[in-house]
Design brief:
single chain; alpha/beta; Amidase signature (AS) enzymes; eleven-stranded mixed beta sheet; two-stranded antiparallel ribbon; about 35% helix
Length: about 550
């Protein structure tokens, strides 16, 4: 399959606003005689080339994805990843096609199809968080990032299932829609909480996806669905109009099938929002050129990477995962990276990271702030009302946080936030001390959990499973996960995690794309094979 030269893309794309001129310049690099493309692997840039050339329309693209959802979400492997389909998606795509013909594309995402976790407010579709009592909750305005994506010309095709935001449900599933299954192993979940985004993008029900992260909820499903996920620096992406559990830790971000596609989405959603004061930290920190321009096939050459060994667990259940991580380190070296192994904070991060868990104290306050934004017609507009209407369905940690009371002088929250600072300074100190471009670690080295219809685990510190490496979430540092192979035992994916200093997303994108190009570990799931018509011809 012919790929658009990355040199063309990086040389031509501009910084926000993403101008139509940038699209035309990038597409000028595409040969008219390029080979056919498979929908499973076609990138944003390749799809744009076909749409600009007239051999594909956004309307046709939506139809292809709808056919896949029909074949594989409720039928076949029954992934159960979709909560709500947008009934106007075809009409919106058709209007965008007309606009392209008459005025040209708005941005590199014009006509591209997005799937969003059901925590992002959409003015024309319900936003439930997977919580059954919120099934009819209809926001009257878009979330900040949804508004930006619409203005960039994106078609929002569906709102996705997830780990229940407010209710007790099976891992990776919701009280509204039930469990989300993995397309790689029907006995496995794609993890929490952006599980639907993981399964749907892995099965290519859309071009790109949106997830959200409190304690690893972008990293976890991206890993388990063989995707690239970016959990950005705290404050780079606005949370306005997004269900959240923690002002200290919450963030939203892209989950896609390639680093380049994630970077293209980040170009649209990153930036200042006066309604989310956390984004003030990003003023002056965004790169002058697009995030997509930092994608490089040789991004590992000459890079200095530190191996965060204290996050690599030991014991029999970790042997296979540790072997996969050792292979990844060998791949880094073969691609020209300088490996500093080990680097160590001395904090025992694998065990002590849960000491930084702020959400268990903040969650009720955060939920109240979100619910108050909803119109008077919303079924629930406060935590008190949620507990009254939801009863035993409401997560115990939400009830406990509500009973905890005001957090202004909370010694427990203060201690958690102090530990966050200690971890963040220790990690950035390692990068400075060894003059590193970033740190590398696995998300998990044990097998993925089997799907079980059991309640969510306790929220007390130390209750997290051995699989969770959530230091990016606890510290607010940027991280990117990239496919790193598969466990032979259960066929589930393995991933490598890149961690950097605040606002070093450009560096991490360069490193991640270099690893991606050197290894090509992304593989489509066999359970959702191509359908007729998915070979795209120029």
């Amino acid at each position: 399959m012919t790929r658009i030269p990355m040199s063309c893309l990086t040389a031509r794309l501009t910084r926000r606003p993403l101008a139509a001129l940038a699209v035309a310049a990038a597409l000028a690099c595409v040969s008219p005689a390029q080979a056919s493309l498979d929908l499973a692997t076609a990138s944003i840039t390749e799809l744009q080339a076909l749409m600009t050339g007239g051999s594909l329309s956004s309307e046709q693209l939506v139809r292809l994805y709808l056919a896949r959802i029909e074949a594989y979400d409720g039928k076949g492997p029954a992934l159960n990843s979709v909560i709500t389909l947008n009934p106007r998606a075809l009409a919106e795509a058709k209007a965008l096609d007309k606009e392209r013909r008459e005025k040209g594309p708005r941005s590199p995402l014009h006509g591209i199809v997005l799937l969003a976790k059901d925590v992002f407010d959409t003015r024309d579709l319900p936003t439930s968080g997977g919580f059954k009592p919120m099934a009819t909750s209809q926001p009257d305005r878009d979330a900040f990032v949804i508004d930006r994506l619409r203005k960039a010309g994106v078609v929002i095709l569906a709102k996705l299932n997830q780990s229940d935001w407010y209710g007790v449900a099976a891992p990776g599933g919701s009280s509204l829609k039930g469990p989300v299954l993995s397309p790689y192993n029907a006995k496995k979940s794609t993890g929490g909480s952006s599980s639907g985004t993981g399964s749907a993008i892995a099965a290519w029900f859309g071009t790109v996806g949106l997830g959200s992260d409190t304690t690893g909820s972008i990293v976890i499903p991206s890993t388990l669905a063989n995707l690239v996920g970016i959990s950005a620096t705290h404050g780079l992406v606005s949370r306005t109009g997004m269900m959240w559990s923690s002002p200290s830790q919450e963030s939203g971000g892209p989950m896609c099938r390639s680093v380049a596609d994630c970077a293209a989405v980040l170009d649209v959603i990153a930036g200042y929002d006066a309604a989310d004061l956390a984004t003030q930290t990003g003023i002056g920190k965004l790169p002058e050129r697009s995030y997509a321009s930092f994608v490089s096939k040789t991004g590992l050459k000459g890079a200095r990477l530190g191996v965060l060994r204290e996050m690599v667990r030991s014991g029999p259940v970790h042997e296979e995962g540790r072997a996969l991580f050792e292979q990844a380190i060998a791949d880094f070296k073969a691609a020209g990276a300088v490996i500093v192994d080990p680097v160590d904070t001395g904090l025992g991060l694998a065990d002590s990271q849960t000491l930084a868990d702020a959400p268990r104290y903040e969650v009720a306050t955060a939920i109240d702030a979100y619910l108050a934004r909803l119109p008077a017609s919303a079924p629930i507009r406060s935590v008190a009302e949620m507990i009254a209407k939801g009863g035993a369905l409401v997560k115990p940690r939400i009830v406990e946080s509500y009973q905890y009371g005001p957090i202004d002088h909370s010694p427990e929250l203060l201690a958690a936030m102090k530990h966050q600072t200690v971890m963040r300074e220790a990690l950035t100190g390692l990068i400075d001390r060894y003059q590193l471009d970033g740190l590398i670690l696995p998300y998990r080295t044990a097998l993925a959990d089997d799907f079980k219809a059991t309640p969510n685990p306790p929220a007390a510190p130390g209750a997290r499973s051995e699989n969770r490496n959530a230091i990016a979430s606890y510290t607010g540092l940027p991280t990117i996960v990239v496919p790193g192979g598969f466990f032979a035992s259960d066929g589930m994916p393995f991933a490598v995690q890149f961690l950097g200093k605040p606002f070093t997303e450009p560096t991490l994108i360069r490193l991640a794309s270099g690893y991606e190009a050197a290894t090509h570990h992304r593989r489509a799931p066999a359970a959702t094979p191509p359908l007729a018509g998915e070979t795209l011809l120029p």
